[in-house]
Structure formats: structure tokens, C-alpha cells
Amino acid sequence: MSDPKVLTCLWFNHDLEEVAEFYVSLMPDSHIDSIERVPKEIPQGVPLETGKPMLVQLTLGGVSYQLLNGGVDFPHSEAASLVVYADDQNELDRLWSALIADGGREVECGWCVDRFGLRWQVIPRRFIELMNSSNPETKQRVLNAVWQMKKIEIADIEAAVAA
Asked: Domains in the chain, ordered, with CATH?
């Protein structure tokens, strides 16, 4: 893999190997590219444990990311999230279940938070297709349906359009 010019770095206060292994298990074309560990000699006052992962480079769904073991000072927030486009309801359900498992939680309108505190939007491609409609009424019906959901149900948004 060549080094990308621009890369998203996500800050964690967890075992980065656990985080990375979980994320790459979610979708095809995902893998851990490298793990840099905290060196034996670190500056005094640095709150990292020697030998623990300090920086993980990974590819998630074909996109490169960096995970940094940065400590507790800067937790994840709603200001940033990863968006995943699901091809169908089965894929959406699988991703949603994995992301909210073991301490994750549902939010609303296709948003959830995983057990590591990272926000995700799990969006069906069908939603995007319907929102690209030239019919303003279709778009409004889709939005009205999604605003009532946590996990998006494709059949429910299609039923809203057909109503």
C-alpha cells in the first residue's frame, strides 16, 4: 500500500489492537497494515505503557485510517463519524448489530455509537437513491420515515414513499 496524502487519524484510549481487529472484521477490503508499539524508552510523563500499540495503520473498506492511542483527553464526539453504505438490509442489520454490541448504543436516523465511543452512520444505498429523486414529495416522505427510526429499515422507507 502506498502512503496516502491525506489520512484520517482517530484518537482512542483503548487497546488499539482490539479496536483495529474489531473494525477490520466489519467489512470486506479491510486489514491491519501496521502496528507501531510504544518504544522501551519514552519521555518522562508520557502516559503510555512500553510495548503497547501506539499507532495502528489500517484499511477499512478500502480506505486508510490511523488509530492513535492518545489517552483520555479527547473523547470521540458527534462532531465526527464514519459513514458506511450498506447494499441491502441484511448487510445493514449485520453491521448495526456488530456496532452496538458489547456496550455500543443506538442513537437515531441511522446513527449509532460503538463500544469504543466512535460514532457511525449506517446508511442503506436505497436511502441515497430515494433522496436523489427529483420528486420533492418523495424526499420528504423518506426523511419523515427516517426521522422516526434508529436503525434504518429499507422496507419502511419504501413503504413511506409508496403511501
From this structure: 8-69 (3.30.720.100), 81-162 (3.10.180.10)
Quick one: cell of 109?
436516523
Splitting the chain (163 residues) into consecutive groups of 10 residues, what average pLDDT does each group show? 81 90 97 90 71 91 93 86 97 98 97 97 98 96 97 97 93
pLDDT number for residue 70: 82
46's torsion region: left (phi>0), alpha (psi -120 to 50) or beta?
Answer: beta
Condensed to tens digits (0 to 9), the pLDDT of residues 114-142 reads: 999 999 999 999 999 999 999 999 999 99
Coil, strand or helix at 155: helix
Beta partners for residue 135, in sequence order: none
Contacts for 52 with CB less than 8 Å, ≥ 6 apart:
15, 16, 37, 38, 69
Q: For residue 81, give the C-alpha cell.
A: 463519524
- What grid cell was written down for 127? 436511502
Q: What share of the chain is helix, strand, coil (3-state, %, to 5)?
A: 30, 25, 40
CA dihedral 28, 145, 118, 89 (to 10 degrees): -20
- Decide: 76 and 13 in contact? Cβ < 8 Å: no
The one-character DSSP state at 118 is -
pTM value? 0.90
